[in-house]
Structures are given as structure tokens and as C-alpha cells.
Specification:
538 residues; alpha/beta; Glutamine Phosphoribosylpyrophosphate, subunit 1, domain 1; Rossmann fold; 5-stranded parallel sheet; 25 helices
């Protein structure tokens, strides 16, 4: 295909891919990554040597680039729990952005975008039913195409909307009962496994469940850290469910990634527009409150204080969005780094700049729903969900397929007017209504729970010794990256129960130190965990 169409061959491809072709005739290296960034492609061009791979570990193994930390990448990780494309955690290495290809000829590299998320206002002349019909057709087509396989396959079933829809359509399309896999916890308030079980029974799937315990976490965390190309705060769920599928001889699994980003499943889709309203009336409220004419109870309204604080922090749409996808804001993060680290960095990382750059590619007249959806797919989905799912599933030689981000389905969904996307009582009402003949409406009439490991609870109990070790004065000071006193303040605020200190702010540091000990220092972290296993009788 490349011989016939050269770079235009990408227009004929569908699905996930990352590849390189050496054009011997034209002495040109051609590299490309799929439209949505499902599969990774890393590269480095240093000292007239060009290397590329699907994992950063392979670039480091080449010895062409050293395993030295990228200071901008470190700032990025601590700010967002991930790394924004094209940044990586290592110096002199980058990631090819989604929907882009690169040509290397005569020592000159050029990169071009061949596809971007087509976020448009939509045609209001079409009825909601017209869009639902098109959506259902594209959805079934996407699932059907993703089911082509010569090896045993299954479906990840969390019990949420997206995975339940994938399981339902898979069951409808196939003659045989599909395999489905779910994980839950002993801490039942964090688990949706009972909902997954209901769906499995509804569609008579061959269902397998795993209850992840603290014993599993202690035993598997060293392997999870080893698997990480870069430090990440996510991905542990992908590791365990991929392991479960692989243990049952499954080689390919369908996942529901993409539904929340496309159809507005997250709280920020509703919260950001509310805050923008508060921004408009904030001066009036501030004027009234400054006179102290209102009853004292008024000043204790939690939601009002929360919204006023957010309205003050996010003066622009980009600034407001970044608040919801960062652990700290751009100004706060400086206090956590040493002066030496910041002075030796070429510049300071700004997530607002990342968002502002992304926003330049779409119509500024689009409404907030469309803008948020675009950013969620370009940043959070690509830089966290896809990256972590790929690296953790590959650890178990499992291929994850994501039909909800099939590009033809995405194009159809992005053409739906926001008035239809936002209509209905439930988030993602359009997606739900497109399969209402398969799954009873009452199944979806519950509050979105999300899939969150009970790390906050574990950090206060079984993982406390690990946290103390990773954040000790010796551990922090020897890297000369983080300011020990600032980290200690964060540590004490968390264990004192300060509500604004979410566990991810501390856990991101623990993961970073563990990752550095293995990938930078070359330490045997397994022995560290063996000590905890013996100590706690696990």
C-alpha cells in the first residue's frame, strides 16, 4: 500500500497502529501513529543517529540516549500525574503525536499531521433520532470490526456504562458467549463488580472476577513499576485486569475507553459551565459579602466557597480546564522543587500553555461541551488512558482494542450538536439511548462511580511504611529535585485529613521515587517489598 500511495496510505488504514517503513528506493524513513494515539511511538534524534521504538525502555537499551531525567518532564509529571505529548521523562526523547507521520530523508526530519478530531457544531436540521440511528450503526460496525481475531478474546467489564455497552454488542454480534473480566476490592464502597456481574448474567457471558487485595498490591507493585516506561499515577487497574485475562488464555480484549471523553461522562463537563456563570456574578457576590450584610450561615455554604475559589483561579477557559486535570496549579508547583532543580531547568512547565496550544486547532466559537471533549481526547485519553493501558497490557502479552475510539465512530459522534449531547437526566444520554433496546434504562439510572483503587485507605494503613520510606529525608534529598520541607508539609496535611490534599498528590511522589530507584538507579525494588511481605505476614 505504501508503494502505491506513499504517505497517503494512512487514509486507507483504520484502527490502531504505530509503524515505520524504510523506503529503500527513495532512501526515506516513514513513521506513523494512529489517529487517536492508541499505540505509542517514541523516537530520538541525537548525534546524527535516529532511533525509534514502541517503548522508551527500548530507546534506553540502545545506549544512544542516556537514562537521564528530563527536568521539564519531571515538572509535567508532578503537575498532571502523566506526561503531555510529545514530552517524555527522559532527555533527548520524544513521542510522535497522534494523527501524525514523520519523514526522515538525508538527515532531515519533517513531521505532518494527517488527521485531527473533527470537532464541529453539527447540523441542527437533523433530528435527534437521525443522530441516534447513525450512532448505533457506526457503533455496531466498530465493535464488529474490532472482534476480528484469530486468537481467544474477551471484554473488560467494569460494570459502568461504556464497558456494559461493549459487552452487550459483543454478545449480540457473536454466536458464542463472550468472555468477560472484572476486578473489584474487599473495600466494597470502591467496587462496581456487582453491576458487572448483573451485565454478565444478563448477556450470559463466560464471566471471571478477581478481588484485588492489599496482599496483591504489595506483591505486584514491583512488577507494575518495572513495566512503566515512565512514572504514572494510573494504569494499575489495567495491569490487574490484563493479568486476569492472560491467566485465562485470552490474547485480545475489548475495552470501553473513550465513552466518557466523547459523550461527557466526567463531572467537569457540567462543572466548568457552572463556574463560568459564577465568574460572571462573582464580582456582585464579592461586593455583597464584603459588606457583611448577609447572615453568617451564608459564608458557610461549601459549594459557594468552592465555586468562588475555582472562579478566581481560572480566569480563562484554558486555565479553568487545567484546574480539573492537574494536581497543583502552575504557580503552586514551584514550592515543591529545589532552587537548584528549577535553576537548571531550561524553562518552567505550564499545563495552561499545553491546553492553549491545543485549543488553537479548533473553532473558538464551539461551545464548552465540544471544547472539553476535544481536550479530553487530546490530553487525558491519549497521555494517560491509552499510554497506561498499552504498557500494562503488553506486560501480559495482551492486546487491548478500543471500538469507542474507532475514528469513523468518533467522527460521527463529534458531528452531534451539543444540545443533543447534553440533553437527558444522565450523562452520556445519547450513547445510552443508542442501545436502549439492549440494556434496560434503569441499569444506567445511578450515579457514576468511576473505577478508583482504594489507595487513600491503603496509604493510611498497609502502605504507610512504603510511603514513609519513599518520602524519607534521605530519599527526597539525595535526588535534589524536591524540597524536603515542602514535601513534609504535604505529607502531614494528608495524614491530618486535610480535605484539599487528595491522595494522588502524595502517591505521585511515591511512584516517582520507586520508578527512579528501578529505572534510574538500577536498584532491586523487589527486595524492598519482600521486606514488607515478611513484616506484615502477607
Amino acid at each position: 500500500m505504501y508503494e502505491d500511495h506513499k504517505e497517503q496510505c494512512l487514509q486507507y488504514l483504520r484502527g490502531m497502529f504505530a509503524f515505520a517503513i524504510w523506503d529503500r528506493k527513495n532512501k526515506t524513513l516513514f513513521l506513523a501513529r494512529d489517529r487517536l494515539g492508541i499505540k505509542p511511538l517514541y523516537y530520538s534524534y541525537i548525534n546524527n543517529q535516529f532511533v525509534f521504538a514502541s517503548e522508551l525502555k527500548a530507546l534506553i537499551a540502545s545506549k544512544i540516549i542516556p537514562n537521564s531525567l528530563n527536568r521539564l518532564g519531571v515538572q509535567n509529571y508532578f503537575l498532571t500525574y502523566s506526561l503531555a505529548t510529545p514530552l517524555t521523562i527522559f532527555e533527548n526523547s520524544l513521542q510522535l503525536p497522534a494523527g501524525n507521520y514523520m519523514m526522515i530523508k538525508e538527515g532531515i526530519a519533517s513531521m505532518k499531521e494527517y488527521w485531527d478530531i473533527p470537532m464541529i457544531a453539527g447540523c441542527k436540521e437533523k433530528s435527534r433520532m437521525d443522530y441516534l440511528t447513525c450512532l448505533r450503526e457506526k457503533l455496531e460496525d466498530a465493535v464488529k470490526l474490532h472482534l476480528y481475531s484469530e486468537v481467544p478474546f474477551g471484554v473488560f467489564l467494569s460494570g459502568g456504562i461504556d464497558s456494559s455497552i461493549i459487552a452487550a454488542l459483543t454478545s449480540k454480534i457473536l454466536k458464542d458467549d463472550p468472555h468477560t473480566f472484572s476486578i473489584g476490592f474487599e473495600e466494597t464502597e470502591f467496587s462496581e463488580i456487582h453491576f458487572a456481574s448483573q451485565i454478565a448474567k444478563m448477556f450470559k457471558t463466560n464471566h471471571t472476577e478477581l478481588i484485588v487485595t492489599t496482599r496483591d498490591i504489595i506483591r505486584e507493585l514491583p512488577r507494575i513499576i518495572k513495566a512503566m516506561d515512565q512514572p504514572t499515577g494510573d494504569g494499575i487497574n489495567s495491569y490487574f485486569i490484563s493479568q486476569l485475562a492472560a491467566q485465562n488464555n485470552i490474547k485480545t480484549c475489548l475495552s470501553g475507553i473513550g465513552g466518557d471523553e466523547i459523550f461527557g461522562g466526567y463531572d467537569l463537563f457540567k462543572t466548568i459551565p457552572k463556574i463560568k456563570i459564577i465568574q460572571k456574578i462573582a464580582p456582585i457576590i464579592s461586593g455583597i459579602t464584603s459588606t457583611k450584610r448577609l447572615p453568617a450561615s451564608f459564608y458557610n455554604i461549601t459549594w459557594l466557597r468552592h465555586f468562588l475559589r475555582l472562579a478566581d483561579q481560572g480566569s480563562s477557559f484554558e486555565g479553568l480546564y487545567s484546574i480539573f486535570r492537574t494536581l497543583h496549579n502552575d504557580s503552586q508547583i514551584k514550592q515543591f522543587f529545589t532552587r537548584d532543580f528549577l535553576s537548571e531547568s531550561e524553562k518552567e512547565f505550564s499545563y495552561v500553555e499545553v491546553i492553549t496550544s491545543a485549543m488553537k486547532k479548533i473553532d473558538n466559537n464551539l461551545d464548552d461541551f465540544k471544547k472539553i471533549s476535544y481536550l479530553e481526547m487530546k490530553t487525558y485519553m491519549q497521555d494517560i488512558l491509552f499510554r497506561d493501558a498499552d504498557i500494562m497490557s503488553m506486560q501480559h502479552s495482551l492486546e487491548i482494542r478500543v471500538p469507542l475510539v474507532d475514528h469513523e465512530f468518533v467522527e460521527a459522534a463529534c458531528a452531534i450538536p451539543s444540545q443533543y449531547m447534553k440533553s437527558g437526566i444522565q450523562p452520556k444520554q445519547m450513547l445510552i439511548d443508542s442501545v436502549k433496546d439492549l440494556i434496560p434504562r434503569e441499569f444506567f439510572e445511578r450515579k457514576k462511580q468511576g473505577f478508583i483503587f482504594p489507595f487513600e485507605l491503603w496509604m493510611r494503613t498497609i502502605l504507610r511504611p512504603l510511603v514513609d520510606n519513599m518520602l524519607s529525608k534521605y530519599s527526597i534529598n539525595r535526588r535534589n529535585i524536591f524540597d524536603y520541607s515542602a514535601i513534609q508539609n504535604l505529607y502531614h496535611a494528608f495524614y491530618a485529613g486535610h480535605k484539599r490534599i487528595v491522595f494522588t498528590k502524595l502517591w505521585s511522589l511515591v511512584v516517582f521515587e520507586l520508578w527512579c530507584r528501578y529505572h534510574i538507579d538500577g536498584e532491586d525494588i523487589c527486595s524492598l517489598f519482600d521486606e514488607y511481605v515478611r513484616k506484615d505476614g502477607l
